Amino acid sequence: MAIEYLGLSSINGPLIALEGVQDAFYDEIVDFVVNGKEHKMGRIVEVYEDKAIIQVFEGTENMSLNNTHTRLTGHPMEIGLSEEMLGRTFNGIGEPIDDLGPITVEEVHDVNGLPLNPVRREYPRNYIRTGISAIDGLTTLIRGQKLPIFSGNGLPHDQLAAQIVKQASLGGSTNEDFAIVFAAMGVKHDVADFFRRTFEESGVANHVAMFLNLANDPVVERLITPKVALTAAEYLAFEKNMHILVILTDMTSFAEAMREVSSSKGEIPSRKGYPGYLYSELATLYERAGIVEGVNGSVTQLPILTMPNDDITHPIPDLTGYITEGQIVLDRNLHGQAIYPPISVLPSLSRLMKDGIGKGYTREDHQDLANQLFSAYAKVGEARNLASVIGEDELSPIDKKYLEFGKAFEERYIGQGPNENRTIEETLDLGWELLRILPKEELDRVDTKILDVYYKG
């Protein structure tokens, strides 16, 4: 039974204290009526005896201690779901904002998700093709994986996210259903318009469910947005047997919203002012990726975060790296050389890549080729360091070859147009074309049988 209360005990930023409450529970959703007409929603974030602390999603403007009617709903935050969500745009708490009316709800789910029995998880297999060589060839994204993109302020991660949405597919000639859930947190209006326009103009909008929390939207709403998006993804994957790619941008905005609310609650801060439960909150989101036994669908996550001051040891990328299965790192130096996408190959990795590539998945030479490209590009760095000391003219012939390879690799393999969508065969063939710059005897990471077939230099 829903219980109603008149008046509030105190207001502090987005938080409200209510005394004299009965049978309230953590994460319960609360309805407010302000001045008898304005409706707002909140959720209980703390309960102590007969006191409850409530986060207000829409902010506490116009609310006072005397003009607010509060009703405890008796259930946690829920969202109505159906396949009609694809092709639609929602705000951060799952309400349609595209003027196309409400969706026809088939099921209602708790946004916090259901605990997934680890025994029922299946090991991620198969790959998702992004059409971007530096990802597909060297840090392949596997279905059911969580693979974050570490970026920095001013780097083109928004453009990269939009390109992945436009180009992503299951690869090959499969007839399985594939869709994308895109959630943006704390983005500016021009960035939100860029995403909307890009998806519509490229014709992919009809298989994208988009959740937008704008920079001027309430901070508290930002904490719900990724949960709402992942709930929609889980429904489409596990109820409708679809393969879903979830793109979350920007996880730094999510973490900073958490820090702001934690500070309002008077909690003792941890590293860099973030709450001590930042790790568990991030893990709660990231671990909602995966494949469930007996279900044809999968949830794959590609969270994007901007590293403050390009510091990869900052708590947000640091904790993300502990939870996820690799990372794709964007590089400011490559961006300065007008190379797009500026993916820094050497610190990037995909820990599950080996199990979703090779014969039967991509091509039998994929793993050996990737190993050789990593090895050769590492030697490019050594040759460049040597050239900076003794001069390029004094280098040995083989070091000059590595410099030539490095330049071509960055411009042609890492670099590609923002609308260039490469097949996996094109990516692999280009890798071999670049390796032919080097003498055959330098390619010591490739099986001789594969080398005989693909190295025709």
TrEMBL record:
It holds the Pfam family ATP-synt_VA_C. One of its GO terms (biological process) is proton motive force-driven plasma membrane ATP synthesis. Residues 9-64 form the ATPase F1/V1/A1 complex alpha/beta subunit N-terminal domain. Coiled coil: none annotated. InterPro entries: ATP-synt_VA_C, ATPase_F1/V1/A1_a/bsu_N, ATPase_F1/V1/A1_a/bsu_nucl-bd, P-loop_NTPase, V-ATPase_su_B/beta. GO terms for molecular function: ATP binding; proton-transporting ATP synthase activity, rotational mechanism; proton-transporting ATPase activity, rotational mechanism. It comes from the Bacteria. Residues 131-350 form the ATPase F1/V1/A1 complex alpha/beta subunit nucleotide-binding domain. Keywords: ATP synthesis, Hydrogen ion transport, Ion transport, Transport. Residues 355-455 form the ATP synthase A/B type C-terminal domain. NCBIfam families: PRK04196.1. Produces ATP from ADP in the presence of a proton gradient across the membrane. The V-type beta chain is a regulatory subunit. Belongs to the ATPase alpha/beta chains family. This is V-type ATP synthase beta chain. It comes from Coprococcus comes. The gene is atpB.
